[in-house]
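Bench log, entry 3. Co-assembly request; chain sequences pasted below exactly as received.
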Amino acid sequence: MEKKLTGRCVVPGKCDGEVMVSAQPISFWGSVDPETGCINDPRHELFGQSISGRVLAFPFGKGSSTGSLIMLELARVGKAPAAIINMRTEPILATGPIVIKHFYGKEIPVVTLSDDAFKMLKTGQHVRVNATEGYVSIIE
Amino acid sequence: MRLTGHEQKILKGKHGEAPRIALSVLVDLGDLFGAEEMMRVSQVHIDMTIYMVDAGVEFAERLADLGGKVAVPTSLNPSAIDLERWKEYRAPVKLLDKSRRLENAYLRMGATPTWTCAPYQQGIIPRFGEQIAWGESNAIAFANSIIGARTNRYGDLMDICAAIIGKVPKFGLHLTENRKAEVLIHLKEISMEMFENRAIYPLLGFLIGEMAGDRVVAIKGIPQDVKIDSLKGLCAAAASSGAVGLLHIIGVTPEAQTLEMCLQGTKPKEIFQITPKMIQDAEERLSTAKKDIADLIIVGCPHFSFAEFRELAQLMEGRKVNRSVTFWAITSRAVFGWIKDCGMLKDLTDSGVMVFTDVCPLQYPKETWHFNGAMTNSGKFAYYCFSQTGLDVIFGSLEECVETAVNGKLCRKESLWRKN
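Structure output for the full assembly:
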């Protein structure tokens, strides 16, 4: 059984993986440890958990303009998320995966979904992300 | 996006590998945000100058190695260390090495060694309406709001790409229609006397940022004779608690001589008000300290101007910083030259104030300096202090910072909003 959620491509790419959902926005600078990929902001609901290799779903990015750089470092050390799903993506968040594509030749697909579609995602689900074609499939 | 023949050639690598990478990144961003074309910018301010992670050094060095050169005048945000007084700043060897590598890479690309987060006061200063590409949240808010220049909130990496190409995708705050206020804030029962304590400005900024989020905001009720350094503190705080890129101060900032002007014929989507009680509450929330301990006093976040040094020197005159306290005043090389030449530096140094240039005090080396608590007159420093340094912080006016430094214990003055 697959459920297909249609959205919009932000950064192209495809991957399969396990979803990690956060209802809170994420500021990569100040909330994510660039060495381990763990959320290190005690005020965040994902505190202590690793985002590396996960399909990370959160509503939108926030905070400092250094966020783009932290994402680049996560890719450099191999601790980046496998893909990102947002409700909306702002420039600082998008910059990380775009630069990673052109600078390291690695792919971190980013896709946006409507608020309703986003809410169908639950931590632990297995999903297929196809940012290039702008959809996410939940594989039950 | 529609690209010119020249831009298409750059994308094909005909002008070298550094411009190819830089323009590829910018075009992707432009496509994402619905830009129709690229537009020229006259200058760039690079945010990614503080060593944090190796990816930043690799990115800058690789672009420099590939022959990347900035196409327009480009200023630099602070370094992780005082690049001249690094010994006094107790810079660890590794941090010194990485900071030098970043310095070399940017200077090889032709950037200007401003090393300041206040480039609007001592840097390459834009005019009203000028299209620019700036990083550094406080500088973005100041340039857009106080000067009326036009920049998006450019993040690390994007800023360097913009500098190499001298262009950005045409979207967001570069366009007049996106500069109208969506949020309106009124000040309620805030008397003119309350503005005499200038600590009110960062506190207002902190509240404005929370209310605005990432929207353009207009504020009514700020006195017309507000000092430029107070506006600096207000913008810096607003761009910390919120993703504020542009705030209109009615009757003060150039695009908001009237309310109608900054609303561009529309109605605000949301209206808030700020009361004295909220200012008191903001002050309490900005201070994370449970105990009255402050053995590190920080001023100059954003970097101190000459006018601010003058005020500090007057407050310190003939007095000494208590032995139990470390007092840092942070500024740019340009201002440092002026205070040195007029003798103010010697007076401040003799009274125990340590003046550093180039640095961001939020990133001071934790291995070599040990403190128990910080006090600052900066809303931005207070906002980020605990998460960036692990130190608890007390927010206060410049006068309170000086009194605390001299007495070696926390000194508070009466303020009108605290009575409410």
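The helical segments of chain A are 28-31, 67-76, 91-103, 115-118. Residues 2-139 of chain A form a domain with the Glucose Oxidase; domain 1 fold (CATH 3.50.30.10).
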